[in-house]
Amino acid sequence: MNQLSRGFVRFASTMALVASVLLPMAVQAQNNSKTDQWIHVRVESKDEGGETVRVNVPIDMAVKVLPAIKKDNFQGGKVRIDCGHLDDVDLRTMLDAVRTAKDGEYVTVQSNENDVRVAKNAGYLYIHVTDKNHKKGGDAKEMKAQHESKVEVKVPMKVVDALFSGGKDELDIVAALKALSSNGDTELVSVKDSENTVRVWIDSKNIAD
Predict the structure, then answer these.
(1) Are 151 and 44 in contact (CB under 8 A)?
(2) Exposure string (b/e) for 59-84, b if CB count within 10 Å is 16 or more?
(3) Which residues are paired to 150 by β-bridges?
(4) Domain residue ranges of the chain, discontinuous segments joined by +
(5) Distances (CA, A) of 163 to 25, 29, 154, 160
(6) Closest Cα partner for 93 from 103, 101, 105?
(7) Which helix (H) or strand (E) holds 175?
(8) CB atoms < 10 A from the CB of 41, how many?
(9) What burial class does residue 191 get, using C-beta atoms within 10 Å of its C-beta: 0-12 exposed, 13-18 middle, 19+ buried?
(10) pLDDT tens digit sequence for 84-112
């Protein structure tokens, strides 16, 4: 996978991991507080006897609780990135350029190793990455064992703006959630590979699908 593809995969994975930090608050989500929008995270393991983890949290509760969590690079509702560049891809500069540009398909990469698509349309940023993970050589059975890892991200641009509204090398999760709460039902992140499937989305339901 080339540096550009790795940067997008890391960005998408970061978003999924950030969402999963809400897991410790899942029990609190059973309170009777009412809210219009909920953020859902579902992680399914494909291993034999694997488990499925579902997290359902009201966005307004997450906005209040997240600043109190202090763990490693997650402090005060913000995630600090060790380096402003992810695999030599300056996401802040890149996303600012996308934000101010007209709608269109900005990046399309197709190769034997991976496919990448970056586009903006109707106020949403789309990032699709397929890592083909081809094995070289082997018999027909081994060839059949080849698999693809797919990452699909769909984010309202106003959420992207809020996410990067913090200081340098920071992702402001609380600001992003506040922007997200004013948005309609949206599928945010989908990750599928040979080990797990991850889905992150928001809607007005207090239970996951």
Answers:
(1) no
(2) bbbbbebbeeeeeeebeebbbebeee
(3) 130, 192
(4) 3-103+157-203
(5) 21, 23, 14, 5
(6) 101
(7) helix 173-181
(8) 24
(9) buried
(10) 445 556 667 777 777 788 999 988 888 88
pLDDT for 6-19, tens place per residue?
555 555 555 555 55
Report the pLDDT value the prediction gives residue 28, as an integer from 0 to 100.
43
Both tokens of 63, joined, read 């906005």
DSSP state of 108: E
| Beta-bridge partner residues of 79 | 74, 171
187 - beta bridge partners?
A: 201
Contact 184, 33 (CB under 8 A): no
Q: Beta strands 74-75 and 70-71: pairing type?
A: antiparallel
Its pTM stands at 0.65
Contact criterion met (CB below 8 Å) for 14 and 89: no
Burial class (CB in 10 A: 0-12, 13-18, 19+), 15: buried
From the list 82, 103, 119, 124, the residue with the least C-alpha distance to 8 is 119
